[in-house]
Amino acid sequence: MLYAAPMSSFDPLSHYDPDTITNLHGKLDYAQYLQLDRLLASQRPLSRPEHHDELLFIIQHQTTELWFRLIIHELRAAMDLIARDQLEATFKILARVKHIQTQLLSQWTVLSTLTPTEYLQFRHVLGPASGIQSHQNRLIEFLLGNKDARMLAVFAHKPEVHAELEDALRAPSLYEEFLRYLARRGMPVPPEIVERDWTVRRPGHPGVIAVFKLIYEAPDRHWDAYEMCEKLVDVDEQYCLWRYRHLKVVARVIGMRRGTGGTAGVHYLRQLTEDVLFPELWDVRTQIRPAGGA
Questions:
Q1: What are φ and ψ of residue 215, in 5° steps?
Q2: Cys bridge to 183: 96, 118, 189, 270, which one at CB 3.0-4.6 A?
Q3: How far is CA 67 from CA 28, 38, 242, 276, in A?
Q4: Could you tell me where the DSSP H helices lie in 171-222?
Q5: At residue 64, does pLDDT exceed 80?
Q6: Is the dihedral of CA 56, 58, 64, 70 positive or negative?
Q7: Is the pLDDT of residue 262 over 60?
Q8: At residue 5, does pLDDT exceed 60?
């Protein structure tokens, strides 16, 4: 004989929990913790009459800067750990950085819905403002080793920002901290790599390739370094893909026009897509031999 199950008093269509705190007078609430009043008041379109799509343009770039801030926070933590010989602790951090980069990559699809006709209705209000003036993006590049002292001139009007970037320019990058770690572990990293002028971006070095070749051909003996190499390649690859997506969105929205900051626009961005942050980690792949192979 079949029996009907007793009806539950819970209403599956209701999400209200009677224990929900509703008396928030004098207490910290969600909006206060996140400072939403300030955050949501910071989108201020300048077009008059206000163009519908300017809000999209502002939010796209503001959210990018928020993710940039988190990347900087994570990279600095990773660099500090490597300098203290705690390499494995950086793996989760760099995995997180990769996922943040994935978010940045995917959000280009939102901006790509902006048509050239729509953008031209408010582009003039930007004046000389341009993404090349993002000090956080420049700081990320310096922390990852893509250093160019000439770019400091863009920030001469902001002394505190200029000083922060100059400090990063003069310090070892994430990649260079890793090479210094390998040297401390007894790997044959050339001396001129671990002590040098950090402000100058160096070309690929055969001695560094040789070190990575040792690691990749015997990962069981160098597992932590092997894992770190792949984490760095993840970050480098995602950064390249982000640059390429940036290039395509700009080409789609403004064509071959010059950028608002005076750059060559698509021509400038195309040059960046051909660059890599950690050259020896890419070059070594051509030289790796199988275990026991000739």
A1: -65, -45
A2: 189
A3: 25, 18, 13, 21
A4: 174-184, 191-194, 206-217
A5: yes
A6: negative
A7: yes
A8: no
